[in-house]
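Q&A FORM
Asked by: J.P.
Topic: structure of Probable dual-specificity RNA methyltransferase RlmN

PROVIDED:
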Amino acid sequence: MSAPDGRNHASTKPLVLPAEPLADPGKELPLVFAAPRRGKPAKHWIDLSTEERVQAVKDLGLPAFRAQQISKHFFERFETDPTTWSDLPKAAREQVAERFFPELVTPMSEQRCDGDTTVKTLWRLHDGSLVESVLMRYGVKRGLPDDQQSHVRSTLCISSQAGCGMACPFCATGQGGLQRNMSTGEIVAQVMKAEQVLSSGELPGGAGQVNNIVFMGMGEPLANYKAVMGAVRAISDPTPDGLGMSKRGITVSTVGLVPRIEQLTAEGLPITLAISLHAPDDELRDELVPINTRYKVDEVLDAAWDYAKTTKRRVSIEYIMIKDINDQPERAALLAKRLKARGDWGWVHVNLIPLNPTPGSKWTASRKSDEQAFVKTLENWGIPVTVRDTRGQEIDGACGQLAATLK
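REPLIED BY: S.T.
REPLY: Here is the structure written out as tokens.
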């Protein structure tokens, strides 16, 4: 197999499949697309459109301008308790609080690592469902006072479902099954809580804000499409109607729900799409990512290519590196060949992720030598590639580790 420049960058050895099935025979989980129906959370101010907010305050007997006033408190100042808002009539404060600001996510526990710059929070939803989010600060210089810190940025990894129905055998979330979809309000509530923590200056690096949102927590975001798109808009709509975050700072990840990728393409939103590929060949990906039994590698990559072509946003290919399973140079070469076949204008970037350990897992991360050989093969083909800086592994807060259990 040769690269476009004619040089032989990988051996022609055939692709090797695992000697044993990746999922224990008889214990494979089914794919679940329709979330179980459970009691819906109360509707929150987040869940309403701008027009609906105006009508809602009028229905309470308040003038229309109060809607923008409420939104400024919430989306600009991250204030969530209307009973303290002195610019609202005292008689209206309790009404507004009760009607529009139910507590959607309740913190149950918090774990920190990386010098308190990585924080994993376990949230309880109204029906007892548990989800997790992970807040990560980058660029914090140890030993430097907060008022002298610069270039500090924060990324928040949020959940979109309680559990996940995609049944990937190497992922703790996927092996826990799907409990239910989250509402737009519940998804954005994770962001609001992080904004409150950052603006207070509670974490090292001084006061700040969330710069990037990644839908890479619990759940398959595109399986909860309507709520996730509502959250994307609430996060990115200009203040005071939303949080005003740049769409370019939002990443939505998917295992490859092709019809939903096509739907996302039609939205025309310049957000980043991340594809959890993990194998370039259908035979292995059928086992690693069970959705591949419905939408094959070529279908997924075609949809990703069309997304990049339409939005002019580079697609990220996420690839978990698992020792002796998917980390051979031959697979790197096949991955490069398939990506190159669709275009050569920098439309794609490969993000390699060392497998993070999960309880009872029989797999481990690739050897460093195999990881380096994989990187070199991709680079020789001219494919941009990085190895993710794993954060939060010791608190089970890294990719594939979120299981949302009370500890």
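FOLLOW-UP: The chain has two domains: 45-100, 106-395.
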